[in-house]
Design brief:
single chain, mainly beta, five-stranded mixed sheet, three-stranded antiparallel sheet, 10 strands
């Protein structure tokens, strides 16, 4: 939130023109930089597969383990950026992946929440665009999601 406010406070910028940009990385850098890193997240109905070329930022969303419901999500580097992707633009075009799935991120495994006066759920956080070789419809029908909490004790 502070990164977002810092970008929006620059002359000629408005927060309406920014979005949070997520990039999966193998691990956060040893030194602090201008990004935020999210770790300890879990994926439901999907998993992340790193590319074999050794690139720290190349990979894609693939089918999860049929026995393990929750699998570890990669560390996500988060930073604000100017919006540029059209809603209908769902093609990465890098030759490795074909699509982008806007993976929903929730606070808890229960995908319900109370609606605020602004019309937002108190459980839904937002969408994380993840590259994939499968159609986004496949992931939506499987119920793929990123979760902050998978335990039932604290719900």
């Amino acid at each position: 939130n502070s990164l977002w406010q810092e970008m929006a406070s620059a002359p000629g910028h408005c927060s309406d023109y920014f979005e949070l940009y997520y990039i999966p990385v193998r691990e956060p850098p040893a030194q602090n930089d201008e990004h935020i890193y999210l770790s300890g997240l879990m994926m439901e109905s999907a998993r992340w597969l790193w590319s074999e070329d050794g690139d720290d930022e190349s990979g894609e969303l693939v089918e999860g383990d049929p026995i393990e419901v929750y699998l570890e999500c990669p560390v996500l580097r988060v930073s604000p950026r100017l919006k540029y992707r059209e809603e209908s633009d769902n093609n990465v075009g890098d030759g490795y992946t074909k699509y982008v799935f806007d993976c929903p991120m929730y606070k808890t495994f229960e995908r319900v929440g109370r609606m605020s006066t602004h019309g937002d759920s108190d459980n839904f956080i937002g969408f994380v665009p993840l590259p994939t070789s499968s159609s986004p419809t496949v992931w939506a029908l499987r119920g793929a999601a990123i979760l902050l909490q998978t335990e039932t004790d604290d719900v």
